[in-house]
Write a structure and sequence with these properties.
Radius of gyration: 25 Å
Structural class: alpha/beta
Number of helices: 16
Length: 493
């Protein structure tokens, strides 16, 4: 068990706050670290460090920033095993999952290194008359990044790579459940050549440290991944202070399986879409919509496969499912399971806690779920899935869209026309066809409706960290005498 400092101005920082929050291994329930619940003085120290670093980082030529971002990506690649073990211990996710995910993390810094080379600066435009028009892109300044517990480094990478590429400096607040990898990231980036103060790490609870960070007037943007309630509160506070905000929030994703799917493949793909990360992901296929002719065989085979999933020690390479993040979350999920049973949903697999150390739950399957029920509408954020039948294309789209969320959904069919028609009809920001969970640094990532504001990844993600400054140059040298005479028709604007 270690006591974590903060990371400010390129080195460990002794906090001013005397309040601490426990960090627990969700697979054992054991205390593995203590983190400071950073106070106003600690936040001010981080902001000051970021402000001091801003001029030198923002003024670097794009090639210099790109070179450092490539070096940061290399440092991540050289430490995949170390980072995977840290994330597995802290999140409870199986080591096999974490190794695979850590291999993707460097790609975001490599991509945005390339973006820095190609998009930095601005452009010149043709303006009528004796004028030269153009604009340049400049960084916002100091930005605040709030990362969740489910994909600590992966989601941090989405935010931080775009922010640094555009010339901003950052203050990262990891989830209070999973702060460990943020410190390793900061250490590796310092060694890779990122200037001191360009990345600072503060820890603590969302209601204390997070609120102070969001409310600090020097922070020009907040980028958060979290719950709908968190996003609404942050957007409201950011709006009052007139700062930008990007929120990637909850989801109630659907995976739609049409009856031309191969049964064995459909079941395997559905298991992946549902249970990666123990279902603790906003793009989980929480609702499996299966065409009625395929439904009975699918339900039977899926339930049998779920009962055979290996739940256990995340550090065992054969483990397929780990715990949920906390006892509080486990009890919340169990409450939703109990309510669903009482409301008439049919439980055909799982539904109970697994006794022993850690916060384990049986992978749980419901059928005959009313799409309008709480289980059909609310985000469970755990290893729980609802399987629902549909009659035809119209029925499938209606059920899929009948939620206030709109983050990600998938379509499974061998009929290309039907796949594209379904994509066009789905009210969500991300649609996979014959896949699920896939992400690419170059592709925009955003939610519709209550699933968020703004866009991560891709060119849009980069642009969201910039301001545009327009220049209009009159090179005629002629006097503009608007008030000299009223006889001549002059241009007003």
């Amino acid at each position: 068990m270690e006591t974590l400092p903060l990371w400010i101005n390129g080195k460990p920082y002794t906090p001013q706050s005397a309040e601490y929050v426990d960090v627990v291994n969700p697979a054992t329930g054991e205390l593995i670290a203590r983190q400071v619940d950073a106070n106003e003085s600690d936040i001010s120290a981080a902001v000051s460090a970021a402000q001091r670093a801003l001029d030198s980082w923002a003024s670097k030529l794009p090639g210099e920033r790109a070179r450092i971002l490539f070096a940061c990506a290399s440092a991540l690649r050289d430490n995949i095993e170390d980072l995977a073990r840290i994330e597995s211990v802290n999140t409870g996710r199986p080591i096999r999952e974490m190794r695979a995910q850590m291999r993707r993390v460097p790609e975001f810094f490599e991509y945005y290194a390339g973006v820095a080379l190609t998009l930095a600066g601005g452009d010149s435009l043709v303006v009528p008359g004796t004028f030269q028009g153009g604009y340049q892109r400049i960084p916002l300044g100091v930005v605040g990044l709030l990362a969740p517990f489910n994909h600590p480094l992966m989601i941090t990478a989405k935010k931080l790579s775009a922010a640094l590429s555009a010339g901003n400096t950052a203050i990262l607040k990891p989830s209070e459940y999973t702060p460990l990898s943020a410190f390793r990231l900061a250490e590796l980036f310092q060694q890779a050549g990122l200037p001191s103060g360009a990345l600072n790490v503060v820890t603590g609870q969302g209601s204390t440290t997070g609120k102070l960070l969001v409310g600090h007037r020097a922070i020009r943007k907040i980028d958060v991944t979290g719950s709908e309630a968190t996003g609404r509160a942050i957007a409201q506070q950011a709006g009052y202070n007139l700062k930008r905000v990007t929120c990637e929030l909850g989801g109630k994703g659907a995976a739609i399986f049409f009856d031309d799917c191969n049964l064995d493949d459909a079941v395997s793909n559905a298991l992946y879409a549902v249970f990666i990360g123990s279902g603790q992901t906003c793009i989980q296929a929480a609702r499996l919509l299966v065409q009625r002719s395929l439904y009975p065989a699918f339900v039977n085979q899926f339930a049998n496969r779920v009962r055979a999933l290996r739940v256990g020690d995340p550090m065992n390479p054969t483990t397929q499912l780990g715990p949920v993040i906390s006892e509080r979350q486990r009890q919340r999920i169990l409450g939703m399971i109990s309510e669903a049973v009482q409301s008439g949903a049919r439980l055909i697999a799982g539904g109970k806690s697994i006794q022993g150390q850690g916060f384990f739950l049986e992978p749980t399957v419901f059928v005959d779920v009313d799409p309008g029920s709480r289980l059909g509408q609310e985000e469970v954020f755990g290893p729980v899935v609802s399987i629902m039948p549909f009659d035809d294309w119209t029925d499938a789209v209606k059920i899929a869209n009948d939620t206030r969320y709109g983050l990600g959904m998938s379509v499974w069919t061998s009929d290309l026309k039907r796949a594209l028609q379904t994509r066009d009809a789905l009210d969500c920001g991300i649609v996979w066809v014959n896949d699920h969970h896939r992400t690419e640094p170059s592709l925009p990532w955003n939610g519709f409706k209550a699933s968020g504001l703004g866009t991560e990844c891709g060119i849009d993600g980069y642009l969201s960290y910039t301001l545009t400054q327009t220049t209009i140059l009159n090179y005629s040298g002629e006097r503009f005498g608007w008030f000299d005479s009223t006889d001549q028709p002059l241009r007003l604007n």
